[in-house]
């Protein structure tokens, strides 16, 4: 159950609930500072996002026109830029504390491709936005002739039109990273408790620990909820829960593939984000083995089994758009992960609104990349020190953040819906996509108004809430609770 002794009869300074990349990084950073820390989570990490991630260490490749169109989006980007700068030292410290071993870095830089899949309103616009932000922040990059992409051999109808390389955005092996983090944590004196938390224990407005699935309780002066998409289950046990944006899952499927020719690219190869999801990305995991990722499907609950259609979509995208002979390669492993997504689309970071409660989740696709920075910043806050990074925009106890107008969100839904069709190679008469757009726009606007007269969820949540009644219910209840809470505060 435990390492470094059991928790019975012990009171910890800090209990970190969640043993993914964020929880591990925070637990290690706190332990380095002399805190008695317990890290809580089942060893096989069900529902986690980290274990199935491509673990790309970059933020510019994730830029979209929507992200940089709001102050909150730009604040998130700037956190990502700062995190990128921290990774070399972070990895060096882990090597020193654990004795090193094989390098956990798997990819040298990131190559962005703009191919013939998708639509200009998304793919061309996001490709241009990434370049613009690289220039804005003076981040090195250089153009690459698509003909010189030595590992890219897409089918002709999916060929790349443009490409550039970002030398500063790498990737790591997430499983090896978490093994090294846990080793450093226990070596420093931390305690690992391999149990599932079912509730947060509190006395009035003071959090005192958690209850485990086996009936035991663990006490601590400070409790940090960093359990990814499953954090919502714990927030539901607290009186402050309704005042915090609800969490849902960004379920995704990835695959490890043994290439038929025994080769792998040296860098990450990816497209811009599109179709309500992350861009298609292929990256080396080891010699002759590649990681494939692309999917993101909003789900009201975390999932642990891949849907067949998502796996088929991923494999077809990879061999059509990146390398044709992947079709003859061998799928070594299918992975499922759950990204924690708040219903307003932004992280939940900081004071949880009760004494002794901290929240560190809702990071969507950026949790692993942000982990060194957020570990440092949350440690400073827990220890009462002056923080460096601005996390205030993402304080957990907040009304819904409305970063974009309803009109812009509706337009995004329309464009991404059309893009799904093109990415899945639909065959329609030329004029039909215009007709579909004309029907989608008023239907989507009507649905947004039906969800709530004031608040509009991010595009992917608005889109899927039409198909998932539970998600629509979550949104309606959260907006109603937020409005009621605001009214009570005004009184």
Outline the structure in words.
- This protein is an alpha+beta fold.
- The chain has three domains: 2-51 and 175-247 and 344-394, FAD/NAD(P)-binding domain; 106-170 and 249-342, 2-Layer Sandwich (D-Amino Acid Oxidase, Chain A, domain 2); 406-490, no CATH class.
- The chain contains eleven helices and 21 strands.
- The strands form three sheets. Strands 1, 2, 3, 10, 11, 12, 13, 20 and 21 form a nine-stranded mixed beta sheet that branches.
- A hairpin with a 4-residue loop joins strand 12 and strand 13 (217-225).
- Helix 2 (71-98) crosses helix 7 (367-382) and helix 8 packs across helix 9.
- The longest helix has 28 residues, at 71-98.
- It is globular, with a radius of gyration of 22 Å.
- 50% of the residues are buried.
- The mean pLDDT is 95.
Spell out the key features of this protein.
491 residues, 9-stranded mixed sheet, single chain, D-Amino Acid Oxidase, Chain A, domain 2, alpha+beta, FAD/NAD(P)-binding domain
Please describe the topology of this protein.
Blueprint: E1 2-3, E2 11-17, H1 21-32, E3 37-40, E4 56-57, H2 71-98, E5 105-107, E6 110-115, H3 120-136, E7 142-143, E8 160-166, E9 170-172, H4 174-187, E10 191-193, E11 197-203, E12 206-212, E13 217-225, H5 231-235, E14 247-258, E15 268-270, E16 281-286, E17 289-293, E18 297-299, H6 308-321, E19 330-342, E20 348-351, E21 357-361, H7 367-382, H8 406-423, H9 432-451, H10 459-465, H11 469-490
Parallel strand pairs: 2-3, 2-13, 3-10, 6-15, 13-21
Antiparallel strand pairs: 1-10, 4-9, 5-9, 6-8, 7-8, 11-12, 12-13, 14-17, 14-18, 14-19, 15-16, 16-17, 20-21
InterPro entries: FAD-dep_OxRdtase (IPR006076), FAD/NAD-bd_sf (IPR036188)
Domain FAD dependent oxidoreductase: 13-380
Organism: Streptomyces celluloflavus
């Amino acid at each position: 159950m435990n390492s470094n002794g059991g928790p019975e009869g012990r009171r910890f300074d800090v209990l970190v609930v969640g043993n993914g990349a964020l929880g591990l990084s925070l637990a290690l950073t706190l332990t380095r500072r002399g805190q008695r820390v317990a890290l809580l989570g089942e060893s096989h990490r069900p529902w986690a996002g980290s274990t199935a991630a491509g673990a790309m260490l970059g933020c510019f490749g994730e830029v979209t026109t929507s992200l940089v169109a709001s102050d909150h989006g730009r604040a998130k980007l700037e956190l990502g830029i700062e995190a990128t700068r921290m990774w070399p030292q972070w990895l060096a410290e882990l090597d020193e504390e654990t004795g090193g071993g094989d390098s956990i870095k798997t990819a040298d830089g990131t190559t962005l491709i703009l191919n013939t899949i998708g639509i200009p309103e998304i793919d061309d616009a996001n490709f241009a936005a990434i370049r613009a932000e690289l220039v804005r922040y003076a981040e090195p990059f250089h153009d690459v002739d698509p003909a010189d992409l030595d590992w890219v051999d897409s089918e002709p109808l999916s060929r790349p039109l443009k490409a550039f390389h970002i030398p500063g955005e790498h990737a790591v092996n997430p499983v090896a990273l978490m093994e090294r983090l846990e080793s450093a944590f226990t070596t420093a004196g931390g305690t690992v408790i391999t149990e599932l938390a079912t509730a947060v224990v509190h006395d009035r407005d003071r959090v005192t620990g958690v209850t485990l699935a086996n009936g035991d309780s663990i006490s601590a002066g400070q409790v940090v909820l960093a359990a990814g998409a499953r954090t919502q289950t714990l927030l539901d046990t607290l009186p402050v829960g309704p005042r915090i944006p609800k969490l849902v899952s960004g379920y995704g499927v990835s695959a490890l593939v043994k290439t038929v020719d025994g080769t792998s690219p040296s860098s990450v190869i990816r497209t811009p984000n599109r179709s309500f999801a992350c861009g298609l990305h292929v990256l080396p995991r080891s010699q002759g083995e590649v990681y494939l990722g692309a999917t993101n499907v909003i789900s009201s609950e975390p999932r642990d089994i891949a849907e067949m259609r998502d796996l088929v979509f991923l494999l077809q995208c990879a061999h059509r758009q990146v390398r044709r002979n992947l079709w003859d390669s061998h799928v070594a492993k299918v992975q499922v992960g759950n990204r924690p997504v708040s219903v307003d689309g932004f992280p939940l970071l900081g004071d949880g609104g009760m004494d002794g409660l901290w929240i560190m989740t809702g990071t969507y696709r950026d949790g692993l990349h942000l982990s060194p920075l957020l570990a440092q910043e949350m440690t400073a806050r827990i220890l009462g020190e002056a923080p460096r990074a601005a996390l205030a925009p993402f304080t957990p106890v907040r009304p819904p953040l409305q970063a974009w107008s309803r009109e812009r969100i509706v337009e995004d839904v329309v464009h991404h819906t059309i893009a799904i069709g093109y990415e899945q190679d639909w065959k329609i008469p030329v004029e039909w996509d215009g007709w579909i757009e004309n029907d989608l726009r008023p239907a989507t606007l009507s649905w947004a108004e039906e969800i709530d007269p004031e608040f509009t969820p991010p595009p992917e949540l608005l889109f899927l809430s039409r198909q998932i009644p539970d998600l629509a219910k979550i949104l309606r209840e959260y907006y109603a609770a937020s409005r009621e809470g605001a009214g009570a505060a005004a009184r």
